Every structure is written in C-alpha cells, then in structure tokens.
C-alpha cells in the first residue's frame, strides 16, 4: 500500500494502459479520478473498483476548460490535494508528412502533447501542496525511434519526452518529479486494431500478428497493460523518490536493437509462438 492516502488523476483511463494504471494505483492505496472522452468504459471501471476509491470524469483534456475541470474534480476528490498525475490519453492516426490530413496532425498534437501540458499546468498549484508529487507521462517507443508512416504520432510522442524533461528541470525546486514511460507493443484494444494492418499484409490472425511484430525483440513477446502499469506505479511512488526526468523504456528491449544486425542471427528466422 505504498500509495495509501494519495490522490491520482489518470487521463485516457477507460481502457488499455489507462485502465490498468487506475487499477494498479487503487490496489496500492490511492484514490483515482479516471478521465476520458467516453463515459461508458469509465463508469464500468469505477464500478469494478472498491467503493469510494475512484470517480469518473468525462472530458477531453486537449481542451483547456476540460483539462482544468478534470484536475479540479480530482483535487476535490482528494480533499484539495493532488499527488499523482498520469497523462495517458493518446491517439495515433497513420500518415506520412505529404499525405497526412492536417486536421489529424493538429488533433494528434492536441491530444498527445498539448493535453499533457494543459493538465500539468492546471495541476501545478495542487501538486505543490502534496508532500510527494509525481507526474508520469505515457509516451511511446515511437517517441524515440521512427515508425514508418506515423509522422504525427512519432512527433507528438517525442515532444512529450522533452516536455517531461523540461518540466523536471523547471519544477524540481518545487519537489515535483516528472518521468515518462515509453511502452513498446502492448496488447490493448487499440493495438489489436493496429494488427489489422499486419494481417492484411501478411495474413494470419491477431495472435500471429502480435507474434510477428515482437519476434525480433529480445523478450520476443508483447506486454500486458499491467506490466506498463507496474512501472507507472513505481515512478509515482516513494520508491522512485530520487528519480526525475527519466524516460523509461518498457518495450521488451525493442529499442536496444540495430536492425541491420539481425542478418547475423538465426533467432529472427521464424515468429515466436509467445504473444
């Protein structure tokens, strides 16, 4: 119960990584305000958690007013305090620079980069009141390495990494820690939809698609949302009290590899059965 008595705000909290983060934080003693644009999944998540441990707020944190309203609701739930902010909301439309719809570019940056900035700005007065304030931003391996045909997503996630480090420098004197996690492939409803592209190209089903995208990584499998949530919980806790500005890869080792060296290995010859 290392988060006992603390209050957290988790954006994009209805499904996938956000849902797992909310569940993990509650399991460690925190009270959690989950935020998302669709009420149904949020309400189902809150109903599944112990009474009094979570509330749901329907909001679009890329909108200034909604971000401030969500933060205020979380602080009210915490009796005026906010200890943990997890910026997880994100979208990822495909497209290269020359063919990406400009409205999608604007929306991707609004959700993935401007949204975290807005929630951080709204949360700062409350975080300063906390005895152990922590912000964890969910970026991506796509913020560290290019992903073919994902210009807006990669640019926004790279920006989120630098926003994390900038905030760690600017607000370290306030005792507020800022860190980011960079997941690789995680089995979520969103990534399962992404696998449709792999299936169209190579055949098979969702399981074989996940095996294909992970077969050349050191651990040769994709992550569960709970595995990402465990790292978020660590960074939010006092166990990481001297960690700030860290960009933690939670990717099974995928960003360790120079892909040009795979020709020297016989382990990349066939997909791993593990998914």
Rounded to an integer in angstroms, the radius of gyration calculated over CA atoms is: 19 Å
CATH topology assignment? Rossmann fold
Strand order of the largest sheet: 3-2-1-4-5-6-7
Given the helix and strand composition, which structural class is it? Answer: alpha/beta
- CATH homologous superfamily title: NAD(P)-binding Rossmann-like Domain
N-to-C span: 31 Å
β-strand number = 7
**Low-pLDDT runs:** 268-275
CATH class: Alpha Beta
Structure description:
With 275 residues, this protein is of the alpha/beta class. The protein has one domain (7-187, 223-258): Rossmann fold (3-Layer(aba) Sandwich), CATH 3.40.50.720. The chain is 43% helix and 13% strand. It contains 8 helices and 7 strands; from the N terminus they run βαβαβαβαβαβαααβ. The protein has helices at 16-27, 39-48, 64-77, 102-127, 151-171, 189-202, 206-214, 225-236, and strands at residues 7-11, 31-36, 54-58, 84-87, 134-138, 177-183, 247-250. A 7-stranded parallel beta sheet has the order 3-2-1-4-5-6-7, with helices on both faces. Strand 4 (84-87), helix 4 and strand 5 form a beta-alpha-beta unit. Helix 1 (16-27) packs across helix 8, helix 3 runs parallel beside helix 4 and helix 6 packs across helix 7 (206-214). The chain starts with 6 loop residues before the first strand and ends in a 25-residue tail after the last strand. The model is unreliable at 268-275 (pLDDT under 50). InterPro entries: KR_dom (IPR057326), NAD(P)-bd_dom_sf (IPR036291), Sc_DH/Rdtase_CS (IPR020904), SDR_fam (IPR002347). Its EC number is 1.1.1.268.
